[in-house]
Amino acid sequence: MRRRPGIAGLQNAAATRDQFRLVGENVAKVRTDVMKEQLATFRTQLEEFARKHKNDIRKNPLFRQQFHEMCAKVGVDPLASNKGAWAELLGIGDFYYELGVQIVDICIATRATNGGLIDLLDLRKLLCQKRKADLGSLTSDDCLRAIIISVGKKKLVRSVPTELNKDHNGILELAQAEGFVTVEQVERKFSWSTGRAIDVLETLLKEGLAMIDDGHRDGKRRYWFPCVTLSSDSTGADAKS
């Protein structure tokens, strides 16, 4: 007759499992630390590369596009803010900000003749005329980077010359759930003070990216974001059709 393991045997088995679990956790931690160290090293090397080839990045459109692709692979966004370290290092934040303003101007100026739709190549030609530059100095990728921003899983076209920083993008991403946010939701999500939450929301409101709704019984102001709400509605409509 087969004997069942005693209490000592069960305790030994449990201790063995705990040891294996600890070993597994230590191995995972070591791997994570190594990956973080490698990523930090790569970012440092990327900064050195950017300093060395600063002029090429600014003047050569193909080189600039390849540099952006390298940055994306390590989670670096040189265009996150005009005031960021990368923007100061390369000066490309101002380049894309100015380009975005010029694109909006051209789209408004040509709306009467093209109905609000303009071919990307035609846009590039008009931009180069405006900037007194050769067509080869400006790529389609440059035009798209100047007006398209990523917010969570969405890509939005920016039609106002407004610099959106991480705070603004965070709120836009939060609003994707219901189309609106409240001050309390922002405070809870990002652990911000009331003053910071209101300041960022009021900036978005001032720039025309948000609308306010005070008609609720709980007395809480809703900040609605049409750019998020409309894109969600159109996606749903496309899915139904």
Which key phrases capture this entry?
Arc Repressor Mutant, subunit A, 12 helices, 241 residues, mainly alpha, disordered C terminus, three-stranded antiparallel beta sheet, 2 domains, two-stranded antiparallel ribbon
Structure, explained:
By secondary structure, the chain is mainly α. The chain folds into two domains: about 40-160, Winged helix-like DNA-binding domain superfamily/Winged helix DNA-binding domain (Arc Repressor Mutant, subunit A, Orthogonal Bundle), CATH 1.10.10; about 165-240, Orthogonal Bundle (Arc Repressor Mutant, subunit A). About 65% of the residues lie in helices and about 5% in strands. It contains twelve helices and five strands. It has helices at about 5-50, 55-60, 60-75, 85-90, 90-110, 110-115, 120-130, 140-145, 165-175, 185-190, 195-205, 225-240; strands at about 150, 155, 180, 210-215, 220-225. The strands form two sheets. The chain has a three-stranded antiparallel beta sheet with strand order 3-5-4. A two-stranded antiparallel sheet has the order 1-2. A hairpin with a 2-residue loop joins strand 1 and strand 2 (about 155). Helix 5 (about 90-110) crosses helix 8. The chain is flat and about 85 Å long. The N and C termini lie far apart (about 70 Å). Residues about 230-240 have low confidence and may be disordered.
